């Protein structure tokens, strides 16, 4: 899910996750590491947009320490960090005005349009020169590529797969084994019904701020459905499989009465319901673990995470952030920016240092991280997370060991599609007489007009 709300929350988490108990002296390093674009003869300067805000001095300190170490290990380079979050409503205008950084942290949903509009640099040679690019999970690497040419246009840096967060304490109270979360739709529906009481909803679902459409897509993947045609020109979510998703939710809401009656919920609200024992299961990504602890002071022993229950799809939705590069920048600046992204995000010594800082500061380390890569590199990352883990990792075993296919978000006009489906989910969960097929047909007809405009 890559809406402003979703990714604002995710960006906030990523920036706060680096916060440590340090002084404002970290801010002084900014002056030394940033500065004018001309850094002297023979020096290549590259700008990047993911400098944390000054309100988070610990994260600024960590960022600038990484910059300092990079510049020392890469003589003749200079990195200028800017706190300038990606904004799709201004990106093209800023690119035309030459105001865009050399490296921009964007969202998984953005590359298709940016590639089509020639608004992102081809980094195929750089990516293929990095020894771990081929270790990306295929569902992740496809996000960075143009499916027609196979060229590479970005570096995925943070990824998530949606799953089921659940309250282990409520599972036990309902006579359910918290180490055996539901694996199928049928089990999920049965668990939700058994978990429901006068004070607890078995399940709470989102239905606003584009999050209803986002979660609908995730459920669609669990049944093996598609949201769009392969070329992204046709809306296909009004299929029998799409109807089955809505029918499941409708039956749970009105027949079983196991879904929270309150509607128009966002992810922040469903997380609060989970944390305060008012909902037993919700759909979320692993990084919500940090918020459970920091915002709700929750006992992490009481919560577990499981892969999405399946109904033939053997898949779940994956999303996250990806670095793209300014096509108007010099090749030298792009290479320096690329090298810094790889160093700051995937250098194992940098990773270990940041994990140690987080753990020593009492921030959560050890949430499932089986998303971006496969093979030896992912195994090494997992071992580092376990080395510094300060959370009950055994509670996430089923999710961490999941072999589900990770399917990226649809490629064309994703946010507008999610918005069109919000009202579909809202109506399904609030009107016992709702007709799932009619709702989906209407939404598909409306969204098809948007796809037709995008293709013209």
UniProtKB/TrEMBL annotation:
Q: Which InterPro entries match?
A: Bact_solute-bd_prot1, SBP, TAT_signal
Protein name according to UniProt: Sugar ABC transporter substrate-binding protein
Report the PANTHER family cross-referenced here: ARABINOSE-BINDING PROTEIN-RELATED, SUGAR-BINDING LIPOPROTEIN
Keywords in alphabetical order: Signal
Signal sequence region: 1-39
Its source organism is Ktedonospora formicarum
What's a Pfam family in this record?
Answer: SBP_bac_1
């Amino acid at each position: 899910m890559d809406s402003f709300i979703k990714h604002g929350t995710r960006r906030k988490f990523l920036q706060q996750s680096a916060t440590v108990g340090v002084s404002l002296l970290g801010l002084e390093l900014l002056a030394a590491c940033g500065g004018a674009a001309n850094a002297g003869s023979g020096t290549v300067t590259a700008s990047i947009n993911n400098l944390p805000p000054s309100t988070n001095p610990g994260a600024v300190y960590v960022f600038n320490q990484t910059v300092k170490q990079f510049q020392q290990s890469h003589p003749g380079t200079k990195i200028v960090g800017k706190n300038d979050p990606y904004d799709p409503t201004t990106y093209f205008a800023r690119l035309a005005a030459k105001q865009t950084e050399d490296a921009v942290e964007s969202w998984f949903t953005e590359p298709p349009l940016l590639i089509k509009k020639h608004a992102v640099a081809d980094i195929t040679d750089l990516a293929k020169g990095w020894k771990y690019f081929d270790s990306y999970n295929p569902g992740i690497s496809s996000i960075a590529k143009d499916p027609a040419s196979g060229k590479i246009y970005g570096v995925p840096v943070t990824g998530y797969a949606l799953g089921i967060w659940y309250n282990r304490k409520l599972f036990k109270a309902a006579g359910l084994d918290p180490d055996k979360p539901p694996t199928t739709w049928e089990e999920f529906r049965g668990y939700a019904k058994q978990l429901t009481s006068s004070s607890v909803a078995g399940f709470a679902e989102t239905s606003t701020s584009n999050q209803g459409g986002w979660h609908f897509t995730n459920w669609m993947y669990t049944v093996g459905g598609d949201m769009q045609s392969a070329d992204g020109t046709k809306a296909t979510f009004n299929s029998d499989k799409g109807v089955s998703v809505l029918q499941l939710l409708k039956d749970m809401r009105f027949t079983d009465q196991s879904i929270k009656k309150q509607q128009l919920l966002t992810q922040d609200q469903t997380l609060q319901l989970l944390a305060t024992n008012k909902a037993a299961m919700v759909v979320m990504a692993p990084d919500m673990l940090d918020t459970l602890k920091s915002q709700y002071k929750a006992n992490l022993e009481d919560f577990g995470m499981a892969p999405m229950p399946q109904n033939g799809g053997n898949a779940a939705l994956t999303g996250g952030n990806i670095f793209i590069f300014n096509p108007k920048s010099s090749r030298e600046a792009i290479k320096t920016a690329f090298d810094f992204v790889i160093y700051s995000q995937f250098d194992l010594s940098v990773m270990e240092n940041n994990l140690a800082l987080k753990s020593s500061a009492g921030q959560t380390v050890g949430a499932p991280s089986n998303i971006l890569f496969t093979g030896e590199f992912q195994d090494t990352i997992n071992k580092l997370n376990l080395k510094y883990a300060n959370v009950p990792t055994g509670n996430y075993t089923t999710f961490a060991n999941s072999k589900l296919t990770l399917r990226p978000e649809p490629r064309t006009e994703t946010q507008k599609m999610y918005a069109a489906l919000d009202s579909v989910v809202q109506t399904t969960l609030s009107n016992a007489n709702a007709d799932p097929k009619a709702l989906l047909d209407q939404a598909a007809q409306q969204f098809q007009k948007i796809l037709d405009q995008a293709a013209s």
